[in-house]
Structure prediction request, 477 residues.
Amino acid sequence: MTQNYTVASAPGKVLIAGGYLVLEQAFTGLVVGTTARFYTVIRPETQSKAGIITVRSPQFENAVWQYKTTIKNEHLQFESITLDSQNKFVETCLKFTLKVIFEKIGSDLLNQLLANGIEVVIVGDNDFYSQRAELEKKHLPNTAEALASLEPFCKTHATLSTVHKTGLGSSAALTTSLVAALLLYFRVVTDTLNETEKVLIHNVAQYVHCFAQGKVGSGFDVSSAVWGSHRYKRFNPAILAPIMNEQVDSKTLSQELDSNNKNWDNEVASFKLPPGFKLMLADIDAGSHTPTLVSKVLAWKKSKPEEAISLWNELGAYNAKVEQHFRKLTDLYEEDEQSYNETIKMCAQLKSKEWYTLSGSVAEEIISLVNDFNHVRSLLQTMSKLSDVPIEPEEQTRLLDASTHVPGVVMAGVPGAGGYDAIFCIVLSEQSKQNVYKVWESWKELNIGPLLSQADSHGVTSVKLDDIPGLNTVLSK
Prediction:
């Protein structure tokens, strides 16, 4: 019986263009959603625990937290009653989202829906976390084939603080799925999640994610968790300034985060990779601390503004060109599907440097895409040197170059802020994909873990429990 379950899901992300620049409203980022998703399941407790919210993350060790809600004098009070461990993202999300809910539905309905207490279960697809420990436990190699054999939502063999993340935006996807599930469960939004309801989810998720992180970030990761793949232009950070305090009252919070608040000036233009283009991802077992990279780049930009602004403007222009080539290729597919497919098929059998031998508008566009993306990479390498920040470290450059030498590979790059965390690759056929996997498996300089995620344009959704393989099983653990 699953009719009492509320389930919301939100995807991970890959920023394929716009790293660092996306922090400023003058520039945009091109972000692709992934098939790797977070799921939040909410159900009423079977035995009465009035006002108690129990949160479980069964993939982690020691991952159960409890919170108590009470309403006194028309004010919502919220406190953690778990003493041995804390989960800042979950606690922040519950505390402030419940304030918005309280303002939207009133104390009577909130009390009614919390009369027995609720259980919240949060899980993420395997790609969000390194599966090296699980593979070792099963005596399996770190290959795509071995990863595909693992059960869904498998154990990480780690605590929240020690787990190795793969850079897909787990905190943003978790936050967005939890916000959406709470708003669904407490009847603030409906199962259809229309555009206005998604704006509310977005605004609340951006706020609680920033609050939990202790700073206002670029917001592209939460944006993609809500909207899926798109071109992103950030919101003015000043929108959050009046409400970034623990004591903010529910009325003010609800007004500032409301979908009708026109001060939210972020821009979203939907996007899809052109037909036949396949996204590949890999986790690098070295890791970089993104906030450190960002702070060092911003320090360089502040100390050498002319040098930095000139480079950023050029990089912004080439990022825009990359997006335009992608969109033009989709247009060419719609204009002449047969010609497009024939050209893509030929490109899939040749190395990108050999594509100049092909003729026609599709070939010209894809060659321009490759050239302009290579220019983006060279500018990021220049920024690495000028800022003394490993945005595309030399080890990564060698790996990316080897990947692009495989027939049918359009591009390979470091997503987001770069560093040693991850790489992405875009290929034109299943054969190209398998050949790239072989390059990664035989690579000795870096420890590469392939991910199974593909590009997916769907953002936050309300889903049925039985439609997600393995979710029922994990709830019973």
